[in-house]
Amino acid sequence: MSAISTLDIEQINAQHGRDATALVKWALGLGQKAIVTTNFRPFEAVILHLVTRLQPDVPVIWMDNGYNTEATYRYADEVTRQLGLNLRIYLPLRSRAHREAVDGPVPALDDPRHAAFTEEVKLEPFARALRETAPRVWFTALRATDSAVRAQMDPVSINPDGLIKVAPLLHWSSKDLYQYCELHGLPNNFDYVDPTKGEDQRECGLHLTH
User: Fold this and answer.
1) 181 tagged catalytic
2) Distances, alpha carbon 142 to alpha carbons 36, 98, 100, 111, 150, in Å
3) Model pTM?
4) Catalytic pick from 24, 177, 204, 206?
5) Distance between CA 194 and CA 189 in Å, rounded?
6) pLDDT digits over 38-82, tens only?
7) Do 168 and 47 meet the contact criterion of CB atoms below 8 Å apart?
8) How far apart are CA 113 and CA 107, in angstroms?
């Protein structure tokens, strides 16, 4: 891949940082291997539609922690069918039943074991996905309103390992996302829980590590 300087990234953020479609087109136009990650939380169909309508076969990576709600699993199947997703599911190396039989239920946020739990059910599966897919571009549905950490992010950034992280929806409001779903007839899901976060404004660690 040709070098992309900090100045180029600043320019792209200035030009396209608030134009999701233009940002996706720019990123795909780099001609590099791309992935889009999803957890099938509310409004996830938006990022999936934005990317796959331009590159239908892009790998969609889902780290299924095994603790999702029934509604989330049904939503995942519905969106996958409707958009024809190239979905690749990454599971923890131990099943939920195995983990709970040995270690008990999900540890509380202030339990020292919670970091190991997050590593097992989310961070390790994502690291495995990166090794197996070897992307150069990573599309994510990060939003500035998610947490204080994400509010400081730019729509396009480059990780220390050279992975280009693209967050086309960073500056979108819930109203923007709702209207996009209505316009394109996309399903939604509000019965969602992330056991690695526990609280809406808490980081799970994925975007701190990557």
Assistant:
1) no
2) 11, 31, 30, 26, 7
3) 0.90
4) 204
5) 13
6) 999 999 999 999 999 999 999 999 999 999 999 999 999 999 999
7) yes
8) 6
